[in-house]
Write a structure and sequence with these properties.
The structure holds 2 protein chains of 2 kinds. In chain A, about 35% of the residues lie in helices and about 15% in strands. By secondary structure, chain A is α+β, with helices and mostly antiparallel strands. A 5-stranded mixed beta sheet of chain A has the order 2-1-5-3-4, with helices on both faces. In chain A, about 55% of the residues are buried. By secondary structure, chain B is of the alpha+beta class. A 7-stranded mixed beta sheet of chain B has the order 3-5-1-12-9-10-11. In chain B, strands 7-15-14-13-8 form a 5-stranded mixed beta sheet. Chain B has a 4-stranded mixed beta sheet with strand order 18-25-26-27, with helices on both faces. Classes of the chains: A alpha+beta, B alpha+beta. Chains A and B meet through helix 2, helix 3, helix 4 and helix 5 of A and helix 1 and helix 17 of B.
C-alpha cells in the first residue's frame, strides 16, 4: 500500500506491507534509525515519536494509519545546529547512559511539556511512566525534564 | 599530576551524548548493510521434552526463505559456557534429542526479510514428548529428581564445599535461623540481544554484536564455526545496556555466524523482547539457609550458610557465582568463623549468569537480613548492631576468613554519613509516633551496610596512547563501554596527564581489529583497570616525550616540563617549548622530519610517540557503603511506597562525580526493583509467567523517588587513580535496605521475615496473618 507521511518536514512516500508498523516504516523505509524498538508489548516507549504533534508509541500504530500525517522523530527535533531544550537538558543533567531509551524518552518529554509547561516532579514521573529506562533509575531524566521545563518557560525558542 | 587546573574530580559532561540525543548513534540493528538476511529462531514452547521430529519442509518453500536449519545442519559444536563446569552441560545451538527449557532453540529460518523469516518459522512443525520438569534447584538435587542430562547422573552442576565446621556457632547465646529466597530476576537491558555476522571477503567474519566484551567472543565464535580466531573481527557498536547479561557468548551468535559463512551474505538476528525474556541469561536465583550466632550484646560469633543456586538448563557462569557469594559472606563484619556450602543445579529454566552484582548482592542480602532479624530479636538498634561488629579501619588491609583481601575500609564513616543524611533519629521518632497513633500508613526504615569486590579476577587490561602529527591523541583500551561514559572519563585521564585537551583525544575501544586485546567491561573494573592502563600509558608517553624534547632542545630530560599551554619545554624557558604535534613528527624517525626540528630521535629511542602496556592491578578492590531506605506501608492494602533512598557509596577517588552518581542511581533502581517488584517466575511445568514487559514488573519513573546519593572517598592504594568500582554498588546496597525497611515497618506486628519481591499482595497477606495470629 502507498503511504505518505511528512517526516521531520520532508514528504515521504513508500509502498509498504499493510502490516508494517509505523516504527518499522520510520526505521526501515525512511532510514531514520534514531527511533528504537525495545519491546513487543507497547510497554517500553523506546519508539515514541510525535504524530501531528502528539507523542505516540510508534509500535502501536500501523504505517498506513499515519498516511497523510506529520511525524517528528528524534532526528527532526533540533533546530538546525541548536539542540531542542529537552535534548540540551538531557545532556547537561546526565539524563542518558546507554542511550537506547533516550529518543523515546526525549520525545515523550517534549510532548509532556507541551501539555504541562510547569510540571511538578510528580507530574514528570507520571508523564513519562510509559517509557522505561534501565540505566539511570530515572533520577537524572526527571531532573532533565524539570530543567528543560524551566528553560522553556523562561527562554522560549 | 598538577593539583591546580586538574580536570579530575569535575562533573565533565559526556561527549557521547550529542550523537545519541540527535538519533545518530548506531546500535547494531541500525547499521545500514546491503544484502542483509534475517534469522528467526524456532524455540521450544515446552520446558522439558524429547524432540521426536522437526519438520521444516513447509517452511523451506515459503517466500523469501533461503535456509532452514535444525539438528546438525550447520555442524555447530556445543558451546561450553564456563570452563569450570562439566563439559556435559555444553549447549548445542540446536537442541536435538531433547529440549531443556522454554526458549531452547530447535530450528532457525533465514529469509530475505525479517517478516518472511517470522512467517516461515511459524510453519516449522516440532513434535515433543514431554518429560517431567524441574524448576527448583533444591528439588533438582533431591533423590529421584528428573535428570536434565541423564548421562551426568545428577543435576549437580558444581558444589562449593569448604568443609563443615561444627564449632562455627560455638559461644553463641542466640542463634538466628532463616531461609531466604533471593529470587530470579531478568536483566532487561533496553536494547535486546542480537548480531550481524558477515563475510570479511577473505573467508573470515566480521560480527557486529551488542556485547560488553568483544574480545571474549573471538574464541567461542571461532570454536563454533571452525574458523581461526584471527579470521574473526568483533565490533561492539553503540550498545544499549548490558548489566552482565551481555558479557558472554550466546548460541544464537554461532548460528548467525555460521549461516553467514554458508550463505555468503550478512545475517542479522534482532531479538524481540519476548524472546529476550527467555533467551537472555538471568540473575540471582539462590535459596539461602542461614544461621548466625551472636552474644546477647550483639557480637557475632559465626555464620553458617547453605545455598542452593539455580544454574538453569545449561549451567554456565551463573552456577559458579555462589563462589563470589562465599567470598563476600563475611561482609563488613568481624565474623570469626564462616561455614559455607553451595550446590548449583541444572533446572528446566533459562540459564543463569552475571547480573549487576553477580554473586555479591546475594551475600549482602543474607547478611543484612539475618543481622536485622538478630537486632530485632535482641532489641538492639539496626545501626548499632552493625557498627559494633564492623571491621575497624585500623585492621586494613585484611584477609577475611573467606580469603578476600580487603584493601581499605571505613565502614562506620559511611553508615554515620547515611544516618546523618537520612535524619535517622528523627525517622525513628516519626515511626514511633505513627505506631503509637495506629496510623494506617506505617513507616519502615531499612539499613544496609555492604562491601563488595570489584575487578575480581580481571586485574589486567591493555592500554595504549599514541600522539599524532597534529597533536591529537588516540587512547586505545581493552574495556568496552555500553553506556557508562568511558569516552569521557578516559579522555579526562589523558588530558590530566598530557595536558592535551580532551576534545583532541580519541578513545578507541570495542573493536578487535583496532584493539589488540581486552577483557571487556564487567565486574565494575573499567575505570580502575582500563583507566589505570591509560594512566600508565600516558605516563609512558610523557616520559618518552620529555626525553625527546630534551634531545631536541639540548637539555636534560629532568628539566623538561609540561607548560601551562600544553607543550613540553625547559623549565623557566617557555620560548623554547615544543608542541605535542612537533614532537610526534620528530618521533617518526629521521625520514620526512622537517629540518627545523633537527636530528630527531635520541639514540636507542623507538620511533613513534606512543606507549602501550598491560596494566595489572594484581588484586581486586573492595568498595563499601551504607544505604538507608524509608518506606511507607499502607496496612490496609499492603502497598509499599519507597519514600526516600539514601546511599553513601565509597568507590575511592572520584574522577567524574556526575558519572559516579549516574551509576549509583541506576544501581539503586535495579536493586529497589528486586526488593519490591521484579521476579522472574515459572509455573510447575516450567512455563515462564513473566516473559514480556507487560508481565515482568520493571519499574517506571512513577514507582520510584529521586535518590539521595552521595559518597565518602577512601582511595585504594592498588592503582594510580585510587579508584574502586561503582557500577554494581548501588544494586548491592539498595536491595537489602529496602527489604529491611518493609519488614521493619511491619515488625511491630510480629513480622520477622518476608521474601522478595515485596509486592502488595505478599505484604497484605503478612499483615493479615500477623493480625490473625496476634
Amino acid at each position: 500500500m502507498k503511504v505518505g507521511v511528512t517526516v521531520n518536514g520532508t514528504a515521504q512516500e513508500h509502498d509498504v506491507e499493510p502490516r508494517t508498523l509505523l516504527v518499522h516504516y520510520l526505521r526501515e523505509d525512511c532510514g531514520l534509525t534514531g527511533t528504537k524498538v525495545g519491546c513487543d508489548t507497547s510497554s517500553c516507549g523506546a519508539c515514541t515519536v510525535l504524530v501531528d504533534g502528539e507523542s505516540v508509541k510508534s509500535c502501536t500504530m500501523l504505517a498506513v494509519q499515519a498516511d497523510g500525517a506529520t511525524a517528528t522523530t528524534i532526528e527532526g527535533l533540533a533546530n538546525g545546529e541548536a539542540m531542542h531544550p529537552v535534548q540540551q537538558a538531557f545532556h547537561e543533567h546526565h539524563g542518558l547512559q546507554c542511550g537506547y531509551c533516550t529518543a523515546g524518552m526525549v520525545m515523550a518529554a517534549v510532548s509532556l511539556l507541551e501539555e504541562t509547561p510547569d510540571p511538578s516532579e510528580r507530574d514528570v514521573r507520571i508523564g513519562i511512566e510509559g517509557n522505561l529506562c534501565r540505566c539511570t533509575g530515572y533520577h537524572n531524566i526527571v531532573e532533565s525534564v524539570l530543567a528543560a521545563a524551566e528553560q522553556m518557560r523562561t527562554q522560549p525558542r | 599530576m598538577t593539583a591546580s587546573g586538574s580536570i579530575l574530580g569535575h562533573a565533565v559532561l559526556r561527549r557521547e551524548d550529542p550523537k545519541i540525543l540527535e538519533g545518530g548513534a548506531r546500535y547494531f540493528d541500525d547499521l545500514p548493510i546491503d544484502r542483509m538476511l534475517h534469522v528467526v529462531f524456532v524455540r521450544s514452547t515446552i520446558a522439558h521434552a524429547e524432540v521426536t521430529s522437526v519438520d521444516t519442509s513447509e517452511a523451506v518453500g515459503m517466500p523469501g526463505v533461503v535456509g532452514v536449519y535444525a539438528g546438525d545442519d550447520l555442524e555447530l559444536e556445543p558451546i561450553q559456557g564456563f570452563v569450570m563446569l562439566p563439559p556435559v552441560f555444553a549447549r548445542p545451538p540446536f537442541a536435538k534429542d531433547r529440549v531443556r527449557f522454554v526458549g531452547d532453540i530447535v530450528a532457525a529460518v533465514v529469509a530475505e526479510t525479517r517478516a518472511q523469516a517470522v512467517d516461515a518459522a511459524e510453519l516449522v512443525i516440532v513434535d515433543y514428548e514431554p518429560l517431567p520438569v524441574v524448576v527448583d534447584a533444591e528439588a533438582a538435587l533431591a533423590d529421584g529428581a528428573e535428570l536434565l542430562f541423564p548421562e551426568h547422573g545428577s543435576n549437580l552442576a558444581i558444589e562449593f564445599d569448604f568443609g563443615e565446621d561444627p564449632t562455627v556457632l560455638d559461644g553463641a547465646e542466640v542463634v538466628i535461623k532463616q531461609t531466604m529466597v533471593n529470587q530470579r530476576v531478568a536483566a532487561v537491558p533496553m536494547e535486546p540481544n542480537g548480531i550481524i555476522a558477515m563475510s570479511d571477503g577473505e573467508g573470515g567474519l566480521v560480527c557486529h554484536v551488542p556485547t560488553q566484551n568483544p574480545h571474549g567472543l573471538l574464541q567461542p565464535i571461532a570454536a563454533a564455526t571452525g574458523l581461526d580466531e584471527d579470521q574473526i573481527r568483533v565490533v561492539a557498536p553503540a550498545v544499549g545496556g548490558g548489566f552482565g547479561a551481555k558479557a558472554g557468548m550466546y548460541v544464537e551468535f554461532a548460528v548467525a555466524a555460521k549461516a553467514a559463512l554458508v550463505l555468503g551474505r550478512p545475517v542479522k538476528w534482532t531479538e524481540t523482547r519476548s524472546e529476550n525474556m527467555v533467551a537472555m541469561t538471568q540473575g540471582r536465583a539462590q535459596v539461602q539457609h542461614v544461621e548466625m550466632g551472636l552474644k546477647r550484646d550483639g557480637t557475632i560469633v559465626g555464620v553458617r550458610v547453605k545455598i542452593y543456586a539455580d544454574g538453569g538448563a545449561y549451567p554456565t557462569i551463573g552456577a559458579f557465582l555462589p563462589f563470589l557469594t562465599r567470598t563476600m559472606s563475611q561482609g563488613v563484619y568481624a565474623i570469626p568463623k564462616v561455614e559455607f556450602t553451595s550446590w548449583s543445579a541444572a533446572t528446566n529454566t533459562t540459564p543463569l549468569a552475571a547480573y549487576r552484582g553477580a554473586g555479591r548482592p546475594e551475600a549482602t542480602a543474607f547478611l543484612e537480613r539475618i543481622i536485622d532479624i538478630a537486632a530485632d530479636e535482641l532489641g538492639i538498634d539496626p545501626v548499632q548492631i552493625r557498627k559494633q561488629n564492623f571491621i575497624p579501619p585500623e585492621a586494613f588491609p585484611i584477609t577475611t576468613v573467606t580469603g578476600a583481601n580487603y584493601d581499605v575500609g571505613e565502614y562506620a564513616k559511611a553508615i554515620d554519613e547515611a544516618c546523618r543524611v537520612a535524619g535517622y533519629a528523627e525517622l525513628r521518632a516519626e515511626q514511633a509516633a505513627r505506631r503509637e497513633r495506629g496510623d494506617v500508613l506505617q513507616l519502615g526504615i531499612g539499613v544496609s551496610a555492604y562491601v563488595e569486590v570489584t575487578a575480581g579476577g580481571l586485574f589486567q587490561e591493555y592500554g595504549a596512547i599514541e600522539v599524532h602529527d597534529d597533536g591529537s591523541v588516540s587512547a586505545t583500551v581493552g574495556t568496552s563501554a555500553h553506556g557508562q561514559g568511558h569516552e569521557t572519563a578516559f579522555a579526562m585521564i589523558v588530558q590530566e596527564l598530557l595536558g592535551i585537551p580532551m576534545e583532541r583525544v580519541t578513545v578507541v575501544q570495542s573493536d578487535t581489529a583496532l584493539v589488540p586485546r581486552g577483557l571487556g567491561t564487567m565486574g565494575s573494573r573499567s575505570l580502575q583497570i582500563g583507566g589505570s592502563a591509560l594512566y600508565k600509558a600516558s605516563e609512558g608517553v610523557l616520559a618518552k616525550a620529555r626525553q625527546l624534547a630534551a634531545h631536541l632542545l639540548e637539555a636534560n630530560a629532568d628539566d623538561i616540563v609540561l607548560t601551562d599551554d600544553g607543550r613540553l619545554g625547559v623549565a623557566g624557558v617557555p620560548s623554547s617549548a615544543l608542541s605535542w604535534g612537533e614532537l610526534a613528527v620528530a618521533a617518526k624517525s629521521g625520514d620526512g622530519v622537517p629540518a627545523e626540528i633537527g636530528e630527531s630521535l635520541p639514540p636507542g629511542m623507538e620511533p613513534a610517540l606512543a606507549y602501550a602496556l598491560d596494566f595489572n592491578q594484581g588484586e581486586a578492590t573492595f568498595p563499601f557503603g551504607a544505604h538507608i531506605a524509608v518506606v511507607e506501608i499502607d496496612t490496609e492494602t499492603g502497598n509499599v511506597e519507597l519514600l526516600r533512598h539514601v546511599a553513601v557509596d565509597d568507590c575511592g577517588r572520584i574522577l567524574n562525580p556526575m558519572l559516579v552518581a549516574g551509576q549509583q542511581h541506576g544501581g539503586i533502581a535495579q536493586g529497589v526493583a528486586q526488593a519490591l517488584w521484579e521476579g522472574f517466575a515459572y509455573d510447575d511445568d516450567g512455563n515462564p509467567l513473566t516473559a514480556n514487559l507487560m508481565d515482568y514488573a520493571m519499574p517506571s519513573a512513577a514507582e520510584l523517588p529521586s535518590f539521595e546519593a552521595s559518597n565518602t572517598e577512601t582511595p585504594t592504594p592498588l592503582n594510580p587513580l585510587g579508584a574502586k568500582g561503582i557500577g554494581e554498588s548501588g544494586t548491592i546496597g539498595s536491595t537489602p535496605a529496602v527489604q529491611n525497611a518493609v519488614i521493619d515497618g511491619l515488625s511491630h506486628l510480629g513480622v520477622r521475615h518476608l521474601d522478595m519481591p515485596l509486592g502488595s499482595q505478599r505484604v497484605w497477606q503478612a499483615i493479615r496473618d500477623a493480625r490473625t495470629s496476634a
